[in-house]
Structure formats: structure tokens, C-alpha cells
Request: fold
Amino acid sequence: MMQSEIIEKIRSGGQAELAWIYEEYRQEFLQWIGKEYRCSSDDCKDIYQLTILIFHDNIKQGKLEHLVSSVKTYLFGIGKNIALENMRKEKRYTPINQEKWLKEYLIDDTPQGTDESFFDLAKIALEKLGQPCQKLVEMFYYEKKSITEIATAMQYKNPETAKNQKCKCMARLRKIFDTEMTKPQNVVPHGYQ
Amino acid sequence: MDTNENDILLLEKFFDEEMNATEREQLMQRVKDDEPFKALYEREKLLIMAIRHDGLKNNLGYLQSLEAAMEREPIATTSRKWYYLAAAAITGTLVTLAVLLSRPNDPEQLFQSYFTPYPNVFDPTVRGEQTSPLHSEAFQDYEQGHYAKAADELGALYKEHPDPGVLMLLGNANLMAGRVEEAKQNFITLNDKFDSLDLQAKWYLSLCYLKTGDMEPARKILRELGETDISYASKARELLEKVK
Reply:
């Protein structure tokens, strides 16, 4: 399969395509990173999972549209950066806390970075938002599904209803977040209010 | 509509990628110059970041369970290089098959992949009807994910007004609250007694069977749905392949 076909397959696909790409390069990647960084089998797998998630995310977010190298080279490059960054932070090889790593990946991605405490409040607000809103906004902003695809997947009458519902969900999320921000234990000087 | 609402609409357009280059540039300039607008922009960015983190975490969980399934089906290795090279071509296929074959043994994972709570398209506030406090509370709790509470309220509501939409949400709320047997009964009633939402009820009933590991009735319903031309048909056929 051509590189562009792989990118298109992931861009338009879902978890089945994520599983496919995971299986496709798993063995080769694990052998390479194990030799290169002497990580344990489990740690190598943790790095591989993060590598695949970043590759997948870069495609979904439109950051990766064309590859100048092969998918394998690109994946090995991400894996190498994750392993080196982890070693730099910890001064030696230590197991990666995957969830924390993903959080830092998102926060560091913004030009000025983001205060972690605000991020945690946003997560609390999202949790309080509940279903089906959570699923809807995730399909839109993370999976980058179109409103038409969301309408079909979530059985809305038409795309307009789905779009309307998405706006209502986001309005509710903002409201919950603002309420969380004004709770006495969370009040700190900030620019969000 | 006040300025704040207009600004939020503007920001939604920006983050939903519905702006052209000039509009984007103008918006970013305003972010630089206008502090209150910058605060709204930062909040929107932060919330979207939290949504993306949730999505990444969900997919991480999915890859972890995939890895666990692959580990349960280890592939025999050999030190003989010639044999390895010969086998290399089929190893990828075996890995894929091992994972695919392991999936029917993990109906819970399949359930998680395919189950999405039925959206509240019956919300009376959307339709502008007059409603009782019980109505509003039940729908609100459902939307906010308080499923056990919503199930109790929807159950009471259904007794008062036997409506298929309420029954559909009741089944989903019971399923989400872990009351699978009650959910099954809800979907069976919806399928038997009502003409609307009956096929949707079948889909959710098949997922109930999947959750309790009753593969045969799950397969039977999925086969039936797969032969229809409703929107669930392709999903049903896909899932049937995985539980065969």
C-alpha cells in the first residue's frame, strides 16, 4: 500500500484502522526499540502505543498529510523522540506514565503551554458533561468526523440536528467549566473569567 | 444576542474550521488586542484540548486491550533464521488472525467498541412541548450520564406514558447502569409492542446479549439486522463477522 493510501485509510477510518496500523508495524518496532534503548518488553510496548497514537492523531488533526519518508521511518522517529525525551526527563530509562505523557503532549503543543490546573478542571467539566454529549464532542473534535457522519453514527434525524446538538453540548460544557472555576477551592488568579 | 454570544459563535466557527484565511487572521489579531475575547478563546482551546485528551485516553485503552489480546495468542517463534524468513510472510497474517479470532472470546471488548448510548432525540425541550418536572429531570439525568437515576425516573415516566422513545432511553440507561437483564426486557418490549424504534431496539438487544456473553441470540439478531437496509445494517454485518 502506498504511503498516501495509508494516510487516507487512517484519516477516514476509526478504531479498526488504528488496530490495523498497530499490528502492521508492531513486531519490527518492538525489536528495534528493545535493542536501541534496552527497554523491557512492557516498556517498549508502552512506547509503541504512544507512537501509534501520535501518528494517528497527527493524521486526524491534519498535521500529517504527506510523508517524505516511509511510515516505518516516521514511526521509528516518533518512538525515538518519546524514548529520548523520557530519558532526558528522568535522567535514565524509567517506565512511562502513558496518561501523563499524553496530557503533556497536548499541553506542550500550545504556543505558551497551558496551566495544568486549568486543564484538570476542563477534564472534570468534561466528565460531568456525561453521555451522549461526551461522545458527540469527541467524535467531532478528536476523531474529526463530519457532522453528517456523526448524524448517521448517533442516529440523529439529520446533520442539522447533530450540529445543533453539538453546539448545545459545547454550551453546557462551557457552563460546567465556568462553575468549576468559581468553586472556592479552584479560584486562582487567571484570565479565563 | 449579546456580544459574548456573538463572540462564542465566532470562536465556534474558528475552532470548527469554518473560517477562511482572512477571517482567521482577523480573529487572531483580536485575540492579541482584546483581553476578554482572548479569555474566551483560551477557554475554548482548553476545552477542546480536554476532549482530545479523552479521545487519546480511550484509544490508548483500546490499544492496551488489543495488545493484551495479542499476548493471549502468542505466536510461536523459532531461532532458525531460514524458517523465520519463510514464515515472515505469513506471520503478519497470523497476528491479525490471532487478534481477530480472539475477539469473539472477548465480547465485552466488542460491546465497548460498538455501544454508543442512544442520543436523547426525544428531549421535550427541543420539541417545545409542555412537560412535567419528572420529564425534564429524567431527560436531564440521562444526558448528564446519571444513568442509574435516569433509569428510575424513566421507568416511572414510562408507567405514566408508555412511549417508545422513553422506553428506548430506559433500556439504554439500564444498560449503562449495569442492569443488563432489565435492559433486555425493555428492548424486547420495545420490539414487540411498538412499530417505531423496533429495529433500533433489536440492535441494542444484540449488544445486551453480547455483554452477557449469550453469543447465539446475539448472532441471530445481528444476522436479521444485517439483512435489512436500515442504518444499523452495515454495523450489524461487521459485528456479526467478529462474533462468528
Notes: The first helix of chain A runs from residue 3 to 12.
